[in-house]
Design brief:
Elements: E1 3-4, E2 10-13, E3 21-26, E4 29-35, H1 41-46, E5 53-58, E6 64-69, E7 74-75, H2 78-83, H3 85-95, H4 98-106, H5 114-124, H6 127-130, H7 133-144, E8 155-157, E9 166-169, E10 172-175, E11 182-184, H8 187-197, H9 203-210, H10 216-239, H11 243-258
Antiparallel strand pairs: 1-2, 2-3, 3-4, 4-6, 5-6, 7-9, 8-11, 9-10
Pfam family, one: APH
Organism: Enterococcus florum
InterPro entries: Aminoglycoside_PTrfase, CcrZ_PhaseVar_Mediator, Kinase-like_dom_sf
């Protein structure tokens, strides 16, 4: 169902699991609209990491609607994540941008430690998965091996860099969906990429391409976040009743945990 927000723009909801995204249209113009997304979006647009920001409007009920240019692109296929150097370029830019760091601090961006991630996972883990002996094994490992990384070195982190959030348009790559943006160890984003898209035998090579030395300490950090990201995906798929995808993630978790 379409609805109007002012005398110019009409909105049509986009099917999805958030209920927060819309197509906005005015005559022949179209924009992508998201409700109550990160206030960092304007800065991300200026840096070329996210699609161009067109306008921001506030509604009568206090919501903020953010419109970005409509791009006729496509999301990356899973096997492209490892192959494309611009994935690494975008992540490196994000993690090393002082202006983005300053802007996120200005808008009160949250800071998330591995302890907080683990506690949040534990609080939301469905009872059925709590009884899974393999998930218990990985969970125990994570509790005993929480990585150490100075909070003063935390960077801007996307927080959900799965392939569905990479949009390529005219061969230019954007990172989209910034609802999970935070200050954290950049190994969080890196571990998420490596866990699902890069064979364990190629992790060191990928890290070198990114610009991180594959020392034992760095590898342990990345490994911890890789396991954490897979556990979070397993929990999400279970809650969405996408059991086939959940089982695929459990198999991937077993491969990563076994080091194969």
């Amino acid at each position: 169902m379409d609805f109007q927000i002012d005398s110019e723009w009409h909105l049509r909801p986009i099917k999805g699991d958030t209920g927060k995204t819309y197509i906005g249209y005015r005559d022949e113009d179209r924009v992508f609209i998201k409700r109550n997304t990160s206030p960092l979006l304007a800065a991300l647009s200026r840096e070329g990491i996210a699609p161009k920001l067109v306008w921001i409007k506030r509604t009568g009920n206090g919501d903020t609607l953010t419109a970005q240019e409509w791009l006729d692109g496509r999301i990356l296929e899973p096997d492209e994540i490892m192959q494309r150097n611009d994935v690494i370029d975008v992540l490196y830019h994000l993690h090393h941008s002082d202006s983005l760091k300053g802007m996120l601090k200005k808008v009160g961006g949250r800071q998330v430690s591995p302890q907080q991630m683990l506690a949040d996972f534990e609080a939301k883990l469905p009872a059925a998965l709590q009884k899974n002996t393999f998930i218990q094994l990985v969970h125990t490992y994570l509790k005993k091996n929480i990585p150490s990384f100075p909070k003063k070195n935390y960077t801007v982190v996307h927080g959900d860099v799965n392939h569905r959030n990479w949009l390529v348009c005219r061969n230019y790559l954007y990172l989209v969906d910034w609802d999970s943006v935070m200050f954290a160890d950049p190994a969080l984003d890196i571990g998420t990429i490596l866990a699902s898209y890069v064979p364990l035998s190629s992790w060191s090579k990928w890290l070198v391409r990114y610009g991180m030395r594959p020392t034992d300490t760095n590898m342990e950090r990345v490994y911890w976040y890789a396991l954490m990201s897979l556990l979070l995906e397993i929990s999400r798929f279970y809650q969405r009743k996408e059991l086939q995808r959940m089982n695929q993630m459990i198999l991937q978790l077993k491969r990563v945990f076994a080091g194969s």
